[in-house]
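During the reporting period the student researcher (J.K.) took over the structure-prediction task from the postdoctoral fellow and processed the backlog of single-chain submissions. One of the processed entries is reproduced below for the supervisory committee.
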Amino acid sequence: MNRHSTLAAALAATSLAACGVNHSEGPPPPPPPPLDSAQTAAFLDTVQQRTFHYFWDLSNPSNGLTPDRAPTPSFSSIAAVGFGLTAYPIGVERNYITRAQAAQRVVTTLRFFWTAPQDSSISGSTGYHGFFYHFLDMNTGTRFQQVELSTIDTALLLAGVLTCQSYFDGIDATETEIRRLADSIYLRTDWRWAAPRPPLVAMGWHPESGFLGSDWRGYNEAMLLYVLAIGSPTHAVDSTAWTLWTNSYQWGTFYGQTHVGFAPLFGHHYSHVWIDFRSIRDAYMQGRGIDYFENSRRATYAQRAYAYANPNGWRGYSDRIWGLTASDGPADVTLTLNGRSRQFHTYWARGASFTEIPDDGTLAPTAPGGSVPFAPEIAIPTLLTMRQTYGDNLFSTYGFRDAFNPTYTPAGPAGWFDVDYLGIDQGPILAMIENYRSDLIWRLMRGNAHIVRGLCRAGFTGGWIQGKCPP
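J.K. obtained the following structure tokens:
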């Protein structure tokens, strides 16, 4: 099971008794400072350009595969490839690369995923039934060890594929091939096969043992997955999957913010990287009187308020240093620091919500970075403060390193700093800043027929989708 689906399975088992609990401890944080437009623009330019080059410099030019992490030697993450495909149009629009360079990288990537072996073999294949293994060998492109065929990571890959389908709209041979390949890859994905307990989609499949026992239920990053699964013109699951998905939502209040809960912020980011949820609502959100964009804004503000209150006394937390999500961490160890027992973790799905609070003092820049469109007035100053406070320890060649923990002083007086960048955390930083600045990815996907179809079948109405759904 992939690292994000492990978290989702755990949260699915969380007691619904948590609904309605109001965690609001201590005074609220101070109001955010005003943004200096010139400083903000220059800073965001730097963040975006450095982060873009993670994908451009480190992906394998012969097959388009993007490493899961760097500089530690790594396999490829298919989700990171999806974020890379989303990054390339941004690179063109920001003049980091030419359109021809981007098109060549994209067509190489899509050719690989269309022609790579798809079968039930234990080794030597890349996927099955149109889905792909979570991790692939960077060079051969085949399954890495015994990882699962991942439905959510395939969905993240497909989102990048469809982004390129919408962006590369030229009539030349390369851009025409990109659109054809994108359509073929998406239409091949057999969502019905991946729903052994229909209409819900299973989290994954192993050739050795079959489907995992858990299905995707809300709320988490799989909102995108169901839009793609319900919207498929070839292998769609029934639209009732959306109602079942929303039936397990937990609605509550955390530090004064009432919203659908999910502790790590990535669950409030991933689907929003591609889908513009502003002013469009499904039946659930119509009943709550907000949209999913507002839900993510509230989750962001709640995390900031939690960090400011800092009930566990972690070093460094403040109204300008916050952000809990799935990320790397310093060590799997329990230590006594300053007379207090502290338990730390390596990779862990950290978060803060009324549902749970997995927090070991480790912060990830992708948490505020992915929240920039929802709450720029608090997210951008936090990113800027992180860079100013921790300098090259945290912000280097490819932008922000994945995580840091000021409390973990065994690593040094200033705490622990990751050496790696992670593709699935770099991607939201780059794309969400671009959505905030230019609306680029959202605009492209508002015009993608597959995304629109999925949203319509899921029952979304209002806003930009009004008039686009069949009667």
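The committee noted the following: The radius of gyration is 21 Å.
J.K. will present the remaining backlog at the next meeting.
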